[in-house]
Amino acid sequence: MNKLLSAGLAGLLTLTLALPAAAHTGHADGTGFLAGFLHPLGGLDHLLAMVAVGLWAAQTGGRALWMLPVAFVTMLTAGALIGMGGFELPMVEAGIAASVAVLGLLVVLNKRVSVYAGMALVGVFAVFHGHAHGAEMPAAAAPVLFGAGFILSTVLLHGAGIATMLIGRGVAKRLARPTAA
Protein backbone atom coordinates (compact mmCIF):
# COMPACT_ATOMS: atom_id res chain seq x y z
CA MET A 1 0.00 0.00 0.00
CA ASN A 2 2.81 2.40 0.84
CA LYS A 3 4.42 1.69 -2.55
CA LEU A 4 1.13 2.45 -4.30
CA LEU A 5 0.71 5.68 -2.32
CA SER A 6 4.33 6.63 -3.01
CA ALA A 7 3.95 5.96 -6.73
CA GLY A 8 0.80 8.06 -6.87
CA LEU A 9 2.44 10.93 -5.04
CA ALA A 10 5.50 10.72 -7.25
CA GLY A 11 3.27 10.88 -10.32
CA LEU A 12 1.41 13.92 -9.02
CA LEU A 13 4.70 15.53 -8.07
CA THR A 14 6.06 15.00 -11.57
CA LEU A 15 2.92 16.44 -13.12
CA THR A 16 3.06 19.46 -10.84
CA LEU A 17 6.71 20.14 -11.58
CA ALA A 18 5.94 20.06 -15.29
CA LEU A 19 3.42 22.88 -14.84
CA PRO A 20 4.22 26.45 -13.83
CA ALA A 21 3.24 27.34 -10.28
CA ALA A 22 -0.38 28.46 -10.24
CA ALA A 23 0.20 31.16 -7.64
CA HIS A 24 -0.15 34.05 -10.03
CA THR A 25 -1.48 37.21 -8.46
CA GLY A 26 -4.59 39.01 -9.59
CA HIS A 27 -6.94 36.17 -10.51
CA ALA A 28 -9.13 35.79 -7.45
CA ASP A 29 -12.89 35.98 -7.90
CA GLY A 30 -15.29 36.81 -5.10
CA THR A 31 -14.62 38.65 -1.90
CA GLY A 32 -15.86 36.70 1.09
CA PHE A 33 -15.41 33.52 3.06
CA LEU A 34 -16.31 31.18 0.19
CA ALA A 35 -13.83 32.84 -2.18
CA GLY A 36 -11.11 32.48 0.45
CA PHE A 37 -12.11 28.88 1.16
CA LEU A 38 -11.97 27.94 -2.51
CA HIS A 39 -8.73 29.79 -3.23
CA PRO A 40 -6.31 27.02 -2.06
CA LEU A 41 -8.36 24.47 -3.99
CA GLY A 42 -7.95 26.37 -7.26
CA GLY A 43 -4.27 25.62 -7.78
CA LEU A 44 -2.81 22.13 -7.91
CA ASP A 45 0.42 23.40 -6.36
CA HIS A 46 -1.35 24.75 -3.26
CA LEU A 47 -3.52 21.66 -2.98
CA LEU A 48 -0.63 19.19 -3.20
CA ALA A 49 1.64 21.05 -0.79
CA MET A 50 -1.05 21.39 1.87
CA VAL A 51 -2.08 17.74 1.63
CA ALA A 52 1.61 16.76 1.70
CA VAL A 53 2.04 18.59 5.02
CA GLY A 54 -0.70 16.39 6.48
CA LEU A 55 0.73 13.22 4.95
CA TRP A 56 4.21 14.00 6.27
CA ALA A 57 2.88 14.94 9.71
CA ALA A 58 1.05 11.60 9.97
CA GLN A 59 4.05 9.72 8.61
CA THR A 60 6.31 11.33 11.18
CA GLY A 61 3.81 10.79 14.00
CA GLY A 62 4.03 11.87 17.61
CA ARG A 63 3.91 15.61 18.21
CA ALA A 64 4.54 16.26 14.51
CA LEU A 65 0.99 15.11 13.85
CA TRP A 66 -0.33 18.43 15.12
CA MET A 67 2.79 20.62 15.32
CA LEU A 68 3.58 20.60 11.59
CA PRO A 69 0.08 21.70 10.56
CA VAL A 70 -0.02 24.34 13.32
CA ALA A 71 3.35 25.72 12.18
CA PHE A 72 2.13 25.79 8.58
CA VAL A 73 -1.11 27.59 9.41
CA THR A 74 0.66 30.09 11.68
CA MET A 75 3.22 31.01 9.04
CA LEU A 76 0.59 30.92 6.28
CA THR A 77 -1.24 33.62 8.21
CA ALA A 78 1.96 35.66 8.60
CA GLY A 79 2.68 35.35 4.88
CA ALA A 80 -0.88 36.39 4.04
CA LEU A 81 -0.52 39.51 6.17
CA ILE A 82 2.70 40.35 4.34
CA GLY A 83 0.96 39.89 0.99
CA MET A 84 -2.14 41.83 2.04
CA GLY A 85 0.12 44.65 3.19
CA GLY A 86 1.47 44.98 -0.33
CA PHE A 87 4.98 43.89 0.61
CA GLU A 88 6.83 42.03 -2.11
CA LEU A 89 8.39 38.69 -1.31
CA PRO A 90 11.02 37.45 -3.76
CA MET A 91 10.55 34.18 -5.61
CA VAL A 92 7.05 33.38 -4.34
CA GLU A 93 6.25 31.06 -7.23
CA ALA A 94 9.61 29.32 -6.94
CA GLY A 95 9.02 28.86 -3.20
CA ILE A 96 5.60 27.36 -3.84
CA ALA A 97 6.94 25.03 -6.53
CA ALA A 98 9.81 24.02 -4.24
CA SER A 99 7.32 23.27 -1.45
CA VAL A 100 5.49 20.78 -3.67
CA ALA A 101 8.73 19.11 -4.73
CA VAL A 102 10.38 18.98 -1.31
CA LEU A 103 7.28 18.00 0.68
CA GLY A 104 6.35 15.40 -1.93
CA LEU A 105 9.83 13.89 -1.78
CA LEU A 106 9.81 13.87 2.03
CA VAL A 107 6.59 11.85 1.93
CA VAL A 108 7.69 9.51 -0.87
CA LEU A 109 11.05 8.86 0.81
CA ASN A 110 9.43 8.65 4.28
CA LYS A 111 12.08 11.09 5.51
CA ARG A 112 11.97 11.99 9.16
CA VAL A 113 13.56 15.00 10.78
CA SER A 114 13.19 16.53 14.22
CA VAL A 115 9.81 18.09 14.89
CA TYR A 116 11.37 21.54 15.13
CA ALA A 117 13.26 21.16 11.84
CA GLY A 118 10.02 20.00 10.23
CA MET A 119 8.16 22.98 11.66
CA ALA A 120 10.80 25.35 10.34
CA LEU A 121 10.69 23.78 6.89
CA VAL A 122 6.90 23.80 6.53
CA GLY A 123 6.86 27.30 8.05
CA VAL A 124 9.16 28.70 5.37
CA PHE A 125 7.05 27.13 2.64
CA ALA A 126 3.86 28.38 4.28
CA VAL A 127 5.05 31.98 4.09
CA PHE A 128 5.18 31.68 0.30
CA HIS A 129 1.71 30.12 0.13
CA GLY A 130 0.32 32.71 2.52
CA HIS A 131 1.86 35.57 0.58
CA ALA A 132 0.22 34.30 -2.60
CA HIS A 133 -3.15 34.07 -0.86
CA GLY A 134 -2.83 37.53 0.68
CA ALA A 135 -1.54 39.20 -2.48
CA GLU A 136 -4.29 37.58 -4.57
CA MET A 137 -7.03 38.75 -2.25
CA PRO A 138 -9.39 41.02 -4.18
CA ALA A 139 -9.19 44.69 -3.20
CA ALA A 140 -12.88 44.63 -2.25
CA ALA A 141 -12.53 41.50 -0.12
CA ALA A 142 -13.45 41.35 3.51
CA PRO A 143 -9.95 40.38 4.72
CA VAL A 144 -11.08 38.55 7.85
CA LEU A 145 -13.69 36.48 5.99
CA PHE A 146 -11.44 35.74 3.01
CA GLY A 147 -8.56 34.87 5.35
CA ALA A 148 -10.73 32.66 7.55
CA GLY A 149 -11.85 30.85 4.41
CA PHE A 150 -8.38 30.00 3.14
CA ILE A 151 -7.17 29.11 6.62
CA LEU A 152 -10.07 26.69 7.16
CA SER A 153 -9.51 25.19 3.73
CA THR A 154 -5.83 24.72 4.55
CA VAL A 155 -6.65 23.01 7.85
CA LEU A 156 -9.05 20.67 6.07
CA LEU A 157 -6.43 19.85 3.42
CA HIS A 158 -3.93 19.03 6.18
CA GLY A 159 -6.61 16.87 7.78
CA ALA A 160 -7.21 15.08 4.47
CA GLY A 161 -3.50 14.28 4.25
CA ILE A 162 -3.40 13.03 7.83
CA ALA A 163 -6.53 10.91 7.36
CA THR A 164 -5.23 9.47 4.08
CA MET A 165 -1.96 8.39 5.68
CA LEU A 166 -3.59 6.95 8.80
CA ILE A 167 -6.26 5.08 6.83
CA GLY A 168 -3.64 3.85 4.37
CA ARG A 169 -1.54 2.49 7.22
CA GLY A 170 -4.55 0.71 8.67
CA VAL A 171 -5.40 -0.89 5.34
CA ALA A 172 -1.77 -1.90 4.80
CA LYS A 173 -1.66 -3.55 8.24
CA ARG A 174 -4.85 -5.49 7.51
CA LEU A 175 -3.53 -6.64 4.14
CA ALA A 176 -0.25 -7.74 5.74
CA ARG A 177 -1.95 -9.92 8.37
CA PRO A 178 -1.86 -13.61 7.63
CA THR A 179 -5.30 -15.00 6.97
CA ALA A 180 -6.62 -18.04 8.78
CA ALA A 181 -7.05 -21.00 6.47
Gist?
InterPro entries: HupE_UreJ. It contains seven helices and no strands.
Quick tags:
single chain; 181 residues; mainly alpha; 0% strand; elongated
Describe this structure in words.
It is a single chain. This protein is mainly alpha-helical. The chain has one domain. Helix content is 73%, strand content 0%. It contains 7 helices and no strands. Helix 5 runs antiparallel to helix 6. It is elongated. About 14% of the residues have low confidence.
* Main sheet makeup: none
Q: Average pLDDT across residues?
A: 85
- Report the span from N to C terminus: 23 Å
Question: Rg to the nearest angstrom?
Answer: 17 Å
Helix content: over 70%
Order of helices and strands: HHHHHHH
* Whole-number total of structural domains: 1
Structural class: mainly alpha
The DSSP helix count reads 7
Uncertain segments of ≥5 residues (pLDDT<50)? 4-28
What is the tally of beta strands? 0
The geometry reads as elongated
Share of residues in strands: under 5%
Keywords: Membrane, Signal, Transmembrane, Transmembrane helix
Protein name: Urease accessory protein
Signal peptide: 1-23
Pfam family, one: HupE_UreJ
